[in-house]
Amino acid sequence: MATSSRLRRLLKTDKPSESGNAEAKVDELSRDVLQLAEMGYEQDMTRKFSMWSVLGSGFSLTNSWFAISAALATGINSGGPVLLIYGIILCCVMSIGVGITLSELASAMPNAGGQYFWTNELAPRRIANFASYITGWFAWAGAVFTSAAVAQGAGSAVVGCWQLTHPDLVIKPWMPLVAYELINLFAFFFNCYGRTLPKVAAVALYTSLISFIVIFTTVPARAPTFQTARFVFVQFENNTGWSQGGIAFIVGLINTNWAFACLDCATHLAEEVPRPSRVIPIAIMSTVAIGFVTAWAFSISMMFSIQSFDLIYGSPTLVPLLELFHQALGNTAGAVALEALVIATGILCLVSSHTWQSRLLWSFARDRGIFLYSLFSKVDPVLEVPLYAHIFSCFLVALVGLISYGSTAAFGSFPSAMPVAASNMNYVCVVYGILVLIIAIDWLFRARKSFRDVRARREDRFERAAALNQAEIEMQNMKQGTVLRKNTQPESTTEGEVDKSLDSGHDHLKGV
What we know:
Layout: H1 5-10, H2 19-38, H3 51-62, H4 64-70, H5 72-77, E1 78-79, H6 81-108, H7 115-122, H8 125-165, H9 174-188, H10 197-222, H11 229-233, E2 237-238, H12 245-258, H13 276-305, H14 309-313, H15 320-329, H16 332-366, H17 373-376, H18 387-400, H19 428-450, H20 454-488, H21 495-511
Antiparallel strand pairs: 1-2
Helix pairs in contact: 2-20, 3-10, 3-13, 3-16, 4-13, 6-12, 6-13, 7-8, 8-9, 8-16, 8-18, 8-19, 9-16, 9-18, 10-13, 10-16, 15-16, 16-18, 20-21
């Protein structure tokens, strides 16, 4: 017998099920919802993601080979091939530790809040509230800046392609900015309808992996000559202006570190996937593994295929990877085609980053961690997304993009070259200074009294857990009654009767 529409709503799933499978899904839902209630939260989001789509969202954000390509200018100037080849290994080792830690926490306490929630649960009580509060703020701000960096990389690539096909064009600072804003706006719409997000995440994963395979094989296959093994594995390049090679290498690690950034993305989808205690750790560690293989192989392939290091560094396109494609393939159309794959990967990476930042703001607002929390904590019942959190986060990304108009290094950790001037100064320190001021004012005048801490959540969790336990008992009784009716009067059981029998358990869950 086909599962009724009311049962599908109860199960928070879009896919119809047969009756036997429906019972398994009821049990699965009960466990997930009860676990969330024990943490003090309602099931506001639909559990529509699968392990594959969560992996797609997580990897398409981290997107290690794309990260290497987008920040290639920093890497090749701050150590050259040596930095990429060995920096990726170094950052991968560290990221394995980070991934294991995130996986352990996500397995024990799968919650969309992620780091700020775990901090509040595990930190010493005297500092837990404030530590959790600033963790939530910086996690969300970091996501906004990450979206800005991804949009900047994709926007610069678009303008670079235009310059390559129009050699007389001199790129002005406003050109990448316009491309940045248009790409941010385009990516915005993908997160406005929740039911399509799992499919978009899966497409993002396929797009990234297919693009990697095409570029990884095409560039060395078409390159007229190859660099020596010594150049790739031994030669150190320092074009940063820093006198000490060690400092230049550390600066260059910005590039390889970005290849394993944002590993926490999957943790913030914990309330949108069944069995998050199992699925989230698999997604995180798979992201690290796939990331290392793709980033390391991509770097070796590209470094062997470089024809002129100096031309890549001084390319009028301002996109080193595009110049590398042009050198290796020997024609403009082929270079633009390969760069189009990079741009498509980057746009879908931005879509995942928008998902990430909106979940961070939404979950933080549930605990009244930010002003206008009653607005940002709402989940649109029709679109099935935290729409206001999404809109506000993307609006901030658009504002942050204006910084890049005055600085080419606006989104780096610090200036990647010396001497420092207004054009290459990093302004993130200024932005974070303003952010710290906002946090301090908000904490003193609002959040220290209204931020929902462990004690408040514990009171809520007891009430929710008790109600859910009662709902689970009624649902078990409902299933037993359905089986009894099926055995005694199989022909008379209709979808309407199933709906009626589910009303009691459904009402309990809606009231939790």
